Amino acid sequence: MLSSRLFQSVALATLFAFDLTGATRTGLFLDAATLPPAEKFVLAQVAAGKSADLSRQFKDETDRVLRAAFLEALLTQAGTNVHRNGVSIEHAVLLDGVDLRNAEVGHETSLIECRFAGEANFSKSVFEKDFSLAGSTFESAVDFSALKINRGANFDRARFGAEVKAARVEITGVFSAREAHFDSPTGLVNFTGLKTGGDVRMTRVTFAGPATFQSAHIGESWALDGSIFTNATALINFEETKVEGTISFVECRFAGYVSFRDARFGSVDLSKIIWPVRIDERPWLWLNGMTYGRIKAGSDTESWQNIYSLVQRTAHGSAYSADVFTRLEGYYRDLGYARPANVFFRAQKKREREEVLKGLAWGWSFFLDQFVGYGRSPERAIFWSVIIIAIGCVMFQPQRMEPQKSEYTGRKYNAFWYSVDVYLPVIKLHDAEIWKPMEAHVLTNIWRRIHTILGWALIPIALAAWTGMLSH
After folding, report:
1. Residue 70 to residue 65: CA distance in whole angstroms
2. Going by C-beta distance under 8 Å and a sequence separation of 6 or more, which residues neighbour residue 38?
3. pTM for this predicted structure
């Protein structure tokens, strides 16, 4: 740390001498005769249409220092001798703050593997052609707010050590930030309102702190595959984001809070994500309002089960919203997959009982779930009916029964058919008209009444389930 500060002090002192011979920072005159060697080299390379790689020309980092005023003048000053290939500078060191607010840069600009020690401000700037910060390091805060790039932007392998302000950035083409690193555990990475006409490539990016992409609008696809969000207390915000194509989170790792509320995706891939391991019951994942044309979380055979497991795992770790379940139910039903659709429907009803319904409403919901699966599993009614009839067979044993009239004494009695006849409403097998429980067997008489009531109550519900009346 001491050596780094000493280096910066020496470099700034050296540059101060050159500043005395030049004009003010905003009006720096790019006269090769008065410039430091590093700046002379950059100016010559730019005029020749070549990349100015300072590490090849100057082995010592102290000799690769450029003044921020020089960079600002090079990019914005009218009449600067810039080749049609644009400005390309590699391995430069900028110790003082860079101020390119409201700048208009008409040529392609590449600042590759440069080090920005001070704050950098690109807010409200307009780059007419490609802009690259590939491999560059920003040790202090950087501001890209309302930056406009009329072609593509390349932040691949860039490293940011503090807050990043990038709200309302507009990029006409592709935005690439593959393997970028946002290292501050407290500094917000703010891409609110990010707008691109092409793809966004953020594969294998690391976020040490909070990040927001709220209200971003991506014109094509957005790849976040392999990205890592390491802060267990930070929020990663994708709320109201709109992606026209596919947003992919394959093999992402989330340690903290994640919100997709009201996001709209053409397609979303949640395959092989590692979600937070949380032991509390506070909400940590929000999916309510999220819409999609297609959703997957693994292979075709396991995708819906993985999504179901995620929804169930967050049952006590996300804010309840029926639309999460109903949207998944409708999605799989539209695809013709009845079983997954029914599973999500019943999961929604179960969650509703846990967090919304009380009293009789809770009991009615529980009954419909167990008896006919809310009409999605009408075959369950057969199971319960068989149990009730079986109980009747036990209760209506021959030794407990007697003919209703003396002329029926010679008739043959069957406990099974008697139980069926008592249970089924409307349909009559006449066994119930011939036999009755003996007066001495009070429990059998009571059960006969219960048996009859169950039939009149449950059979209509079963028929409604079979006809689809309960499936909505």
Report:
1. 11
2. 54, 57, 58, 63, 64, 65, 66, 92
3. 0.79
